[in-house]
Amino acid sequence: MQELELTFHPSGLKELDHILNGGYLNHNAYLVRGGPGTGKTTLGMHYLQEGLQQNESVLFISFNEQKDKLIRNARTMNFNTDEIPILDLAPGRSFFKDGQSSSVFEDADVDLDPLIDQITKKVDELEPDRIFLDSLTQLRFLAPSKYQFHKYALSLTNYLLEHAHSILLVSESSSELPDDDLQFLSDGVINLEWDHHGRNLYITKLRGADFKSGIHSYEITSEGLKIYPKLEPHEEVRKINYSKLPFGVPEIDEMVHGGIERGCCTLITGPSGVGKTTLGMQFMKEAAGRGERSVLYLFDEKKEVLVRRCESIGIPIRDMLDTGHLEIIEFTPEENSLNQFNDEVQRQVEKLDTSIIMIDSIRGYELMADTDNLSEALHPLNTYLKNMGVTALLINEVEYITGNFRITDVGISYMSDIVIFLRFMEFRGAMQKAIGIIKNRLSDYEKTLRQYEITRYGLKVGEPLDNLRGILTGSPSFVSDSKD
Questions:
Q1: Is residue 257 left, alpha or beta, with left meaning phi > 0 and alpha meaning psi from -120 to 50?
Q2: Which domains are assigned to the chain?
Q3: Which of 121, 194, 207, 401 could form a disulfide linkage to 199, CB 3.0–4.6 angstroms apart?
Q4: Which residues of 299-320 are buried (b: 16+ CB within 10 A; e: fewer)?
Q5: pLDDT given at position 101
């Protein structure tokens, strides 16, 4: 027997090819599983459309929908069905014809013989390179027993693979109608799911090749499926100029000994209203002056509100936006997945040469990630940004206004290279603010705290508060410098 050449065929979705490490493997049968409305047929249309672009012959075998309805639905997503042969075997059509079944299906049940005969005749006629069969679940309903169904499914799959280089089979899986038997006979299994959290795609089986494991996201658009693979940080590391990046406020730069290192992750933490976002915007203002590009992802605030706040304290945010040195993107946790967010960050970094990313805030990111383990969700993104030499600013809000000092409430400080904290304190009957550095992996830093103000002229930072104690408690007091 002639040895089969193992080659990959593109799926029509470059992101799916990435997940499959190349595409559909030659002479393999893939099972696409999912409930109603998950996009199984759409995935198949991408597969057939790609075949036409590769100058291959294709065949769509439909047990579910009638041909005219398939064409109408496909055109709403701009698929060209004019050159896709569709064998319409959907219920309600007269597809049982006289004739003998192909000899490859020995001992087949006589009630299914005419249906199988139509399939074999069409395949023999077209000799298609790609075959999409939607769905085997209907064949299960027609078979008189589980044994007969398994026999039909196995024989049909083997027959189709003798003619096509790859085939896609659909299964309408559910707890009431398990399809373990179909998963067993398939070479690859692609699962499509959706719930109130969004749409997910994952691979549970792939013979002859490796694949990208984990949960990937997707959405159904007017152009078909859009897939967002799970972020896997690049193994290669960009050549990075590890220079110090200043804030442009001399006192703060003095506290961090010249600035923060390029490519590091800085956590800015503190209670609501203390000035965390303002400090981050000051850093990006200074970056814009150097000609660098920053992106701010907003989860907790509207863009126009932030623009007005920045203008009121002398940050020329509209100029930064107009020149392209800053982009502000609002993300709604309920409408976006973690993989969609990571995909957007990759686009900014790799296609638009963004050097600074700020996430405001971690709480919003946590809601979008929809996980109890925020550090596990954030770690791949943090690693990716470090490897790409991108400086990350993470804005974190703590609940307590004064006292009960803690860095975060979500346990992510360990992955930060620098931690800058802002605190409220009550002093002389008024609420004041203090800024301090609690961690810097990459260099030394000032251990004292300083008073911190947001004025109409920008940030104002005072001298070290050497004569105050108890600042972190929220109620500091003077300490005499004289010795008793």
A1: left
A2: 8-228 (3.40.50.300), 244-478 (3.40.50.300)
A3: 194
A4: bbbeeeebbebbeebebebeeb
A5: 41
Cβ-Cβ contacts under 8 Å for 55 (sequence gap 6 or more): none
**pLDDT given at position 96:** 43
The β-bridge relationship of strands 130-134 and 24-25 is unpaired
Can you tell me which residue has the tokens 């096509």? Answer: 164
Q: 398-413 burial, b if ≥16 CB within 10 A, otherwise e? A: beebbeeeebbebebb
Q: What is the DSSP letter of 399?
A: S
Minimal CA–CA distance to 296: which of 371, 416, 395, 411? 395
Question: Which residue type occupies 406?
Answer: R
- Per run of 10 residues, the mean pLDDT along the chain (length 484 residues) is 70 97 95 95 97 97 92 94 92 48 43 83 96 91 85 92 95 85 95 90 94 95 96 78 92 95 94 94 97 96 95 96 97 90 95 96 89 86 94 89 60 85 81 90 90 93 82 63 46
Q: What is the DSSP letter of 191?
A: E
The pLDDT value given to residue 480: 59
Task: Check: CB of residue 329 under 8 Å from CB of residue 345.
Answer: no
Q: Please answer whether residues 356 and 393 qualify as being in contact, where contact means their C-beta atoms are separated by less than 8 angstroms.
A: yes
Task: Give how far Cα 469 sits from Cα of 350, 407, 428, 465, Å.
Answer: 47, 19, 14, 8
Peptide bond into 475 cis (omega under 30): no
Listed residue (225, 197, 193) closest to 333, CA to CA = 197
3-class secondary structure, 185: helix
One DSSP character per residue, 354-373 reads: --EEEEE-HHHHHHHHT-S-
What gap in Å lies between CA 171 and CA 40, rounded to an integer? Answer: 9
What is the CB-side half-sphere exposure of residue 373 using CA atoms within 13 A? 4
Q: Which DSSP category does 333 fall into?
A: G
Single-letter code of the amino acid located at 428: R
**Could you tell me if 464 and 446 are in contact, meaning their C-beta atoms sit under 8 angstroms apart?**
yes
Whole-angstrom Cα distance, residue 454 to residue 133?
64
Confidence (pLDDT) at 430: 78
Contact status, residue 168 vs residue 185, Cβ threshold 8 Å:
no
Q: What's the predicted TM-score (pTM) here?
A: 0.86
Q: Which of 377, 287, 366 is nearest to 331 (CA)?
A: 366
- Using omega within 30 degrees of 0 as the cis cutoff, is the peptide bond preceding 217 cis? no
Q: How far apart are CA 148 and CA 116, in angstroms?
A: 13
Cα–Cα distances in angstroms (integers) from residue 417 to residues 263, 266, 354, 412, in the given order? 10, 6, 20, 11
| Residue 399 half-sphere exposure toward CB, CA atoms < 13 A | 3
What is the per-residue pLDDT for 158?
Answer: 94
C-alpha radius of gyration, the chain, whole number? 30
Using alpha carbons, list the distances in angstroms from residue 451 to 426, 433, 460, 472: 12, 6, 8, 12
Q: Which residues contact 181 (CB under 8 A, 6 or more apart)?
A: 146, 149, 150, 153
